[in-house]
């Protein structure tokens, strides 16, 4: 299992809406994540910096990367684009984080 961590940035006034839109996440998107081998996916929020910290356990990077090609993922990006920093295709601006310690 691959542990993946990444960060994104939500607009300061949008965390409440961001949280609401994730609870619950669309069933169709949840199904795509599961079908693509994503497990234990969490997103955390730092209120000082407005940084979102994402953590997921993956079966493979290839499966993870292919989620972006699904229509439901593209629709989700459009749905969330007004709340966070995004790229031209509406995908969130995201930075992978390098693991420097793990106890387990």
UniProtKB/TrEMBL annotation:
Pfam families cross-referenced by the UniProt entry: rhaM
A GO biological process of this protein is:
rhamnose catabolic process
Give the EC class as a word.
Answer: isomerase
**Which GO molecular function, any one, fits this protein according to its record?**
L-rhamnose mutarotase activity
CC annotations in GO? cytoplasm
Recorded hits in InterPro entries, A to Z, give:
Dimeric_a/b-barrel (IPR011008), L-rhamnose_mutarotase (IPR013448), Rham/fucose_mutarotase (IPR008000)
Highest taxon of the lineage: Bacteria
| Matches recorded under PANTHER family | L-RHAMNOSE MUTAROTASE
Name of the protein this chain belongs to: L-rhamnose mutarotase
Native species of this protein? Arenibacter palladensis
Taxonomic classification, please?
Bacteria, Pseudomonadati, Bacteroidota, Flavobacteriia, Flavobacteriales
């Amino acid at each position: 299992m691959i542990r993946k961590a990444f960060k994104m940035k939500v607009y300061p006034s949008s965390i409440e809406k961001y949280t609401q839109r994730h609870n619950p996440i669309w069933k169709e998107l949840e199904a795509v994540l599961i079908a693509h081998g994503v497990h234990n996916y969490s997103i955390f929020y730092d209120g000082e910096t407005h940084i979102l910290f994402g953590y997921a356990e993956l079966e493979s990077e290839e499966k993870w990367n292919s989620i972006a090609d699904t229509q439901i993922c593209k629709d989700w990006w459009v749905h969330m684009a007004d709340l966070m920093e995004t790229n031209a295709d509406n995908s969130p601006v995201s930075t992978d984080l390098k693991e420097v310690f793990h106890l387990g």
